[in-house]
Design brief:
It contains 13 helices and five strands. It is mostly helical. The structure holds tryptophanyl-5'AMP (TYM).
Length: about 325
């Protein structure tokens, strides 16, 4: 049987190059020869305040973007989390084997609750994420580095459940890219590039115009040196080299070897050319399909039916293991 890969993105804000090189680019490679399932995790998104109209709008936008980035709907399944109630049901069940301490340790909860205020959903977020993954007997989960701690929790919960109630869940393995697992803000390179950064210059969005991309890269923070040298330079510079390497599909070491001696100005132009080329193709494809809502809805309908059917198998095992409901 093919290996199952599962991953997801929140339909909040706009997708940026961190999401692209940290997650989506890996999804595209990994969809080959595997049973690939990609979710639009709208239930996770409402753990911080959202405008309902915008949230709905984002579902089709995200679907079109997945495809524009190279997800092939003939090979992979794309669906919306809230359309498969098994996610919340398993999330509830996993709550009963999760300790407060496990969730209190989560760095994303600490960061987000400081920024947006606390709610129980935000605290419980990683348990729902564990349910997302475990429902599909997932082998591999391609994500950026910021999700590593959540993945560890998913494994721990799967182990605990299996030990207590019998072997039901497969233990998922996180697949975190070596080079671009954590893309930093172009303006504050000690913080992660993020959809909700107030400084718009720090984030390059997939649908930015050529001028915006060039401006953001030109204004990216570097350091007081003027030329690239192998001693790797500041966080700002190494972040730009990380992005360069990811877009060029080569290692960071190869990029340093190739670019050593170039002025920062020359390098930024090369980087901007590379990013503009890739993103313009994504944008072109996006614009071709975004208006075809019938096509996008068909993909999501098929994805939903597949997701429900596949996850029902695991859900029934869970209910049986726990003695919930009546005998089938
Ligand atoms: P989200 O929507 O914040 O991000 C989507 C994916 O993009 C990666 N990512 C980054 N990678 C590199 N550099 C960055 N600056 C950067 N910012 C984001 C994230 O690691 C992620 O892979 N909790 C998840 C969504 C989720 C999920 C799941 C993922 C819910 N259930 C089950 C996998 C499996 C999240 O908030 O991703």
């Amino acid at each position: 049987m093919d290996k199952v890969i599962f991953s997801g993105v929140q339909p909040s804000g706009n997708l940026h190059i961190g999401n692209y090189v940290g997650a989506l680019k890996q999804w595209v490679t990994m969809q080959e020869g595997r049973d690939a399932i990609f979710c639009i995790v709208d239930l996770h998104t409402i753990t911080v305040p959202q405008d309902p109209k915008v949230l709905r709008e984002k579902i089709l936008e995200m679907t079109a973007l997945y495809i524009a980035c190279g997800i092939d709907p003939e090979k992979a399944h794309i669906f919306v989390q809230s359309e498969n109630p098994n996610h919340t049901q398993l999330g509830w069940i996993l709550n009963t084997i999760t300790s407060f301490g496990q969730l209190e340790r989560m760095t994303q909860f600490k960061e987000k609750s400081q920024k947006y205020g606390e709610n129980v959903g935000l605290f419980d977020y990683p348990v729902l994420m564990a349910a997302d993954i475990l429902l599909y007997q997932t082998d591999e989960v391609p994500v950026g580095e910021d999700q590593k701690q959540h993945l560890e929790l998913a494994r721990d919960l799967a182990k605990k459940f299996n030990k207590q109630f019998g072997e039901v869940f497969k233990l998922p393995i996180p697949v975190i890219g070596k080079e671009a697992a954590r893309v930093m803000s172009l303006q504050a390179p000690t913080s992660k590039m993020s959809k909700s950064d107030v400084n718009q210059l720090g984030t390059v969005y997939l649908l930015d115009s050529e001028d915006q991309i060039r401006e953001k890269i030109k204004k990216a923070v570097t350091d007081s040196q003027t030329h690239i040298s192998k001693d790797r330079g500041s966080e700002g510079l190494s972040n730009l080299l990380t992005i360069y390497s990811a877009f060029k599909n080569q290692t960071l070491t190869d990029s340093y070897n190739q670019l050593e001696g170039k002025s920062y100005g020359e390098f930024k132009t090369l980087l901007a050319d590379l990013v503009v080329l890739d993103l313009s193709q994504i944008k072109k494809k996006y614009e071709e399909i975004r208006g075809n809502e019938e096509y996008l809805n068909q993909i999501l309908d098929g994805g939903r039916d597949f997701a429900i059917e596949k996850s029902n198998e695991t859900m029934q095992k869970v209910l049986d293991a726990l003695g919930l409901g009546r005998t089938a």
